[in-house]
Each structure stands twice: as structure tokens, then as C-alpha cells.
Amino acid sequence: MSKRRPMLACEPAPSPEEERPQPGTLAGDVLAGLSATPKRLSSKYFYDAQGSRLFERIMRLPSYYPTRVEARMLRRHARDLLHALAPTGAAVELLELGSGDGRKTLALCRAWLKAGASLSYRPMDISAQALDRLGQRMAKQLPDLAVHPLCGDYFQTWPIPRAGRHQVALFLGSNLGNFAETEAVRFLRRVRAHLRAGDSLLLGLDLRKDPHTVLAAYNDPEGVTAAFNLNLLRRLNRELGMDFALDAFRHYASYCPLQGVARSFLVSQAAQAVHSTVLGTGFHFARGEVIYTEQSQKYDQAAVQSLTAQSGFAVHSWFEDPELPYALVACRALG
Ligand SMILES: C[S@@+](CC[C@H](N)C(=O)[O-])C[C@H]1O[C@@H](n2cnc3c(N)ncnc32)[C@H](O)[C@@H]1O
User: Domain range for residue 134?
Assistant: First the structure.
């Protein structure tokens, strides 16, 4: 790190280990990711204020079907989901992981309150801006709902569950697909460890479908996904003192129907070097070299059964959209 705090005479010098930016921090993850082959940046760093706004625009794009399909499924199956996820009459604590602006969940909460559920809502997100917008929307549209937002990384922090409430964890938007299989199992095990036996988990998962439909969702002609991907470099320029020239990188999306994975990249348009004043180091890019920024796994039923079984959950109910393959999967935490 080049920016050092002045050292007091009696203070021991920090060890090289203490000096190195830690994994799980922006600096540590970027240093490791841009030093790796192929270069990688974690998709969790997309969501600064501008990234969250751009993602809200992506969700409104005609080609970005996951939001539209999931929203209509949550509306259509709201009552069945309540029966599948919560024992009759129990007070429910709804914990949403990576809630974003919570627009889809609002409709679910409204339907559950209408069905007489005793409900409180705990959205959790690393984006303070997304949580602010969620809070304003909920206060305006569902003023009677108790909302307790928590800003943090779900790999590092977790709210203390309130006694006497049935916990329902929500992980929507096919966000699980952003993890490779081992990471998805690690994530689900972490969720399971924070629930009690009999508590519930609802997953919204994109399923395998026509590759053209999938690819179009990550490659919109309006260029919003490209702006979202490139905004990651703008964030690194601002927060890590980097000097990425944004017009020297281009968004590229692919879909592999054999693996069922959509991937997003930033492609270097020239041989170039990029430096970070905060990391005190630079990175070389060959012409055509990529930074791998996001994966979006598309599932089938067998893959979902396997992930949940490895993580201490049993699939209770499976809801599938009749028009476009997408699933809402209600799971129970096993004892
Ligand atoms: C693809 S958006 C989906 C938002 C919402 N779940 C939906 O379905 O519309 C992913 C959200 O997860 C949040 N997020 C990503 N990584 C996170 C992490 N490690 N901890 C908490 N939130 C995270 C982002 O800030 C963003 O709001």
C-alpha cells in the first residue's frame, strides 16, 4: 500500500502480512483478481451508487426477463408460497439477502399481509443506496409493515434472529447463479447455519432455456448492461486510485448452453498498463485480454436438488413459470 499512516517511534513496524490488503476487502480482492490468470473481478463490487441505479435500469429492460418473470410468479403464487414457507399462524420474519430495491418483495409482503400473516421484513444488502430506496418505497406503499434494513455483506455479517418467529430467508433474482458450484454450496450452508431446523428458504432461480433468450438478457441493444459492467472500472478508479481508460475496454457477454452459464467480461482493446495509487502496483493487459466479471448459472431441477441436499435443505415445493423456464423453490432447513 502506498498511502501509509505516520509511524510512532515505539510502534513495531507492521509485518508484510499486515500490510497486504486482506481478502474480502475491495483492495484485497482487486489485487488478487487482477494478478490472477485469467483476470477476475467479483460481481459483488458492481453495486456502488451508480451500479445500483444501473441495475435498476437493467431490471426494466425488455430483454432482461428474470425480473419480469420472477415478479409475476411471486404475485401469482404469493398465497401458495406463504403455505409452503410458513406454518399456519406463525409470526414470520422475512430476511431477504441481497434485496436490492425490494420492488418484487413488496408485492409478496402485500399479499402475505392481506392473507393475515404477522410479518416483519429484514432486507440485507451491501448497497446503502439500494436499501434507502427500498425503505422509502416500503414506507410509502406498506406503512404498516415493520421493516428493519441491514447494510452489510452476507458473507461477513448476519442479523440476530428474533425469538419466537419463523425465519424465511429469500434469495431472489437468481443471485445464486452468480456463484460457482462450490461457492453456492458454501453460501447455502452459511444460510442454513443461521436458520433453525424447520425454518424456510425461498430461492428464485433461472432455468436453462433457449440460448438466444439467455444471451439477449446480458447483451441488451440499449447498452445498459455494458455501462453496468464498465462502471466497475469507474469505481476502481475512484476508490483505488486506478487509471482505467473506460473507452479502452468493451463489454462482452457469452452463453455456453453445454454448461448453462452466461458470462460477462471486459475486453482490453489495446496492450496497456493500469496503475493503482492505493495498491501501489500496476497491471498489464494484452490486447484482447479479458477481465471475467460475472457468471450467471442457469439450472435444472437435478442441479437444484443436489445443491440444496449438500447444504442441509430439502426442497418442499417447486413452482415453475409456464411461459419461460424460471423456478421459485421453497426449501426447509433440515435438523
Ligand atoms: C442482481 S441484484 C438483485 C437484487 C434483488 N435480489 C432482485 O432480485 O431484484 C444483487 C443484489 O445483491 C447485493 N449484493 C451483492 N453481493 C452482496 C453481498 N456479498 N452481500 C450483500 N448484498 C450483496 C447487491 O448490492 C444487489 O443489490
Answer: 53-209+300-333
